[in-house]
Amino acid sequence: MRVRPFRWRRQAGFTLVEVVIAVTLIVVVLAGAYNLIIHAARVSRMARNHYIAVNLAKNHIERARNFRYADLYMMEESNLVMDENGGPANDGRFRRTTTVVSDVEPGLTSVNVAVQICNLRTGEFGDEQEFISSIFTDYLTVEEE
Fold this sequence. Notes:
Layout: H1 16-64, E1 77-82, E2 94-102, E3 108-118, E4 125-137
């Protein structure tokens, strides 16, 4: 009987080193994707908050259009905390301040609305805000005789 010398047989499969390298690469790629998703969500949330703030300010300016010119001063308010629908709320994420400046020019009044956005991490109102201003005038009417 003849004895054959021991030979390494080539086996199908992966070595432990190959598996560790593959898992490491997958973890690195997934970590990068996770950071990208988190950053995109944060930017999306910020854009949404600024969009809401602009609309809150525009809606308040639009409301001023329904006031008589002589009553525009009643639009003034300071640091009104509100929710995203514009309703007053103690735990709201937005804070609106409206100033009315009469006689910018003769017969012109400026209504300025600033809406601050609450920082969700700190829970405080910081520098992030949207600002809209509009000029109102008292239209001259012809007196009837």
